[in-house]
Amino acid sequence: MFASPTETDIAPSGTLLGLLQRGRGDGWLHALAAPRAEAVAALERCVLHDPRRDWQLEHRSLYYARLYVELGVGLGAVAAHLFHPDDAVRPEEERTGLALSVLGHLTSYGDREALALLRRYAVTGANWRWALDELAVRDDDAGLRALGPEILLRFPHTEEGEAALTAAVRDSFEPRPWHVWAGDPNRPEQRARLGRALEHGDFDRWQRQLRPPGPQPGWSVAAVLDWAREGYEQSPRQWREAAAARCLAAVASPADRGTLLAAAEAGQPAVRAAALRHLAEREEPAVFPLIEAAARAPDEDVAGAAVTAFSRMGGEYALRQARRWAERDDELGSCAAAMLARRGGSRDAPRVLTALLRAVRSRGMDARELRPLVEGAGRLAVGGAVPVLRHIYRETASSQLRGDVARALAGTDPSFTTGFAVECLWDCEEATREVAARCATTVDKRVVERLRRLATDPAEQADVQLAVRGRLGDRATG
């Protein structure tokens, strides 16, 4: 089960479980020093109950897989989780995705049991597509070929079954297995069936390109705004703010300025949002009071659209306005502070620091607005931010945010190279390990040994290995 953004089961950062849930390098090191039973229990809890706040952005699978190898942990608990009766009633990817990804990495390390579990789950499991994607990049042709007939049993020889097969082939993340099965010389019926599915999938994509939804050439500004309004009034509601703004960019002329300003001031919510975004992207000076008024609107869609519109502005006028709005304690103020963090100069460092402290105090260690402020503190070299950056590093549950903090500390904290940079070599995030590989002091013997292991690890990312080899090369040449 994934951790909820508001009610989480993330353990305190000072515990072994809390460190492993966060994917911190210190968690890896503490697990090796802890009693093995305690370390195994904490590791299995993380893998079977995914602690990530955003599983599509944060990484944990390689981090946990490496620890499985280091501790010599068996896969009995993972197998029991995958093939539990809950798999039939809770087929969502969140329940099994992390465990399947860990098995994928273990397969890369030569674990035959992990490979067998992936093959078995691909045939019988509810989240079989994820298992098949893991196999697509790790199994050999012979192993995949043997799975073909069993996977195809999921699709009956009916009209609905053939349509489902075409959709599965067309939408597959890793298409290799389908092509292997379509080319199997020993199964002519299977070859013919998959050949049709591949052909129909290509035809479906071609048809989508021929008939794009939405406005067509020749539409007027009024027609585009009506299209945005119609989507908002549909059930279920379609929010067409971004698409309508793109269309307005193609059809609007200077003569339409008055119409667009009026729509941004008092139009129906979707119309107002589209007009605000269009005017903001054109850097219209008159849009600032309209954005400020919309940000106070009781309609959450309109208020959110106002903030989004301002965030897309990039001119000097917007930067000046951001300096006036950065003190606001609302979403528009957060957006203004983020703009200064990304594009401001040294004169804006105090405003960025104030906004960073305010966000931590009022919204906690995992607030959405922290990432641009942390990046800004590093970009502007805000030395006064070091204590709060260290605090965020220790406490945040987001491994992505922790990586941003590590990069900011690398440019602001003189002790980073001998402190956090060392543990970052074991971090779950590739980008964080890369920062550590470039910064961590090689005076520490653990650093040199870790760099050597990363340099030869077949599962390590190319950017990390490039940085690692650069450091080892520099050290060899003195």
UniProtKB/TrEMBL annotation:
It comes from the Bacteria. InterPro entries: ARM-like, ARM-type_fold. This is HEAT repeat domain-containing protein. It comes from Streptomyces hainanensis.
